[in-house]
Amino acid sequence: MTRIAIVGVAGRMGRTLVNAVEQAAEATLAGGIVEPGSSLAGADIGELAGVGKRGVVAVDSLEAIVDDFDVLIDFTAPKVTLANLAFCAQHGKRMVIGTTGMSDDELNQLDSYRDKVAMVFAPNMSVGVNLTLKLLQTAAQALGDEGYDIEVIESHHRHKVDAPSGTAIKMGEVIADSLGRNLKEHGVFERVGQCGPRTDKEIGFATVRAGDIVGEHTVMFATEGERIEITHKASSRMTFAKGAVRAARWVAGQESGRYDMQDVLGLE
Ligand code: NAD
């Protein structure tokens, strides 16, 4: 049985994760952490998530539950996640990290824990998106150097704070890697004014923020005469939460290292 604690338990993903842990076999809800000083500290996390009292109360520090959990699931914000990594390294805990929007410096900091913490870090935990990454690899290899323009379009709810989404960037990286291109050099993240025509090798990104869209990604391969679109649409956060719980159960048996969902799902 994997004992799971959820940081950011009052957030959109946090509440969904409580539900997902409840529904999972071989996993138990061992704790929930809210922001320091939050008035939700002391609340039953089952009640917070709308699944009814579970007898586990939210706390506002990891120290308070250090002996209770094996794996910490963290969908919060970059700085919070990095602080939690330091805690997990110190206390021999494993982590599943869904937080997106890290800067290059923050990603380097995260990576520096790969020898100290067994972690799964993925910008999208859904099985469907991770399969889509494989499809994109195949499509890019077949089309990318044959005159097909590649564009990534993503849509999310109005509250999302980072852009483009971590998933869109990951899709761009997978495509760029498949084609021997560097996303830092060939990614185009903004087009405004007299920006001139598109170049052959660029990989373009467009972002939509509106309403309650859970997460949609389309990658377009377009040339004269035809267009192929590979689309993934998430209709509920449960798909990410289920993937995260699957990752938590998997990482519980792993040595220190930085893993992703392709490792968890055996898609490498
Ligand atoms: P949210 O704002 O609803 O939730 C974040 C929660 O973290 C909030 O409740 C906040 O109070 C809490 N928090 C902040 N600082 C804290 C601290 N020091 N200690 C404990 N809790 C703290 O956001 P969300 O929509 O749930 O998304 C959270 C993150 O997860 C974002 O980066 C988002 O992009 C990412 N995300 C990833 C996936 C994936 O599959 N990897 C899926 C959805 C969202």
UniProtKB/TrEMBL annotation:
**Alphabetized GO MF terms:** 4-hydroxy-tetrahydrodipicolinate reductase; NAD binding; NADP binding; oxidoreductase activity, acting on CH or CH2 groups, NAD or NADP as acceptor
Residue sites binding NADP(+) per the record: R54
Q: Where in the cell is it found?
A: Cytoplasm
> What HAMAP family does its record include?
DapB
On whether Thylakoid is a keyword of this UniProt record, the answer is: no
Under which name does UniProt file this protein? 4-hydroxy-tetrahydrodipicolinate reductase
Alphabetically sorted, this entry's keywords are: Amino-acid biosynthesis, Cytoplasm, Diaminopimelate biosynthesis, Lysine biosynthesis, NAD, NADP, Oxidoreductase
Q: Name one GO cellular component term.
A: cytosol
Q: How does it assemble?
A: Homotetramer.
Question: Where the protein is mainly located, per its record?
Answer: cytoplasm
Tell me which species this is from: Halovibrio variabilis
Q: Which GO terms describe its biological process?
A: diaminopimelate biosynthetic process; lysine biosynthetic process via diaminopimelate
Q: Where does NAD(+) bind?
A: G8, V9, A10, G11, R12, M13, G98, T99, T100, A122, P123, N124, M125
CDD domains tied to this protein:
DHDPR_N (cd02274)
Q: Which ranges carry the Dihydrodipicolinate reductase N-terminal domain? A: 3-125
Residues binding (S)-2,3,4,5-tetrahydrodipicolinate are H157, G166, T167
Tell me what reaction this enzyme catalyses: (S)-2,3,4,5-tetrahydrodipicolinate + NADP(+) + H2O = (2S,4S)-4-hydroxy-2,3,4,5-tetrahydrodipicolinate + NADPH + H(+); (S)-2,3,4,5-tetrahydrodipicolinate + NAD(+) + H2O = (2S,4S)-4-hydroxy-2,3,4,5-tetrahydrodipicolinate + NADH + H(+)
The pathway entry for this protein reads as: Amino-acid biosynthesis; L-lysine biosynthesis via DAP pathway; (S)-tetrahydrodipicolinate from L-aspartate: step 4/4
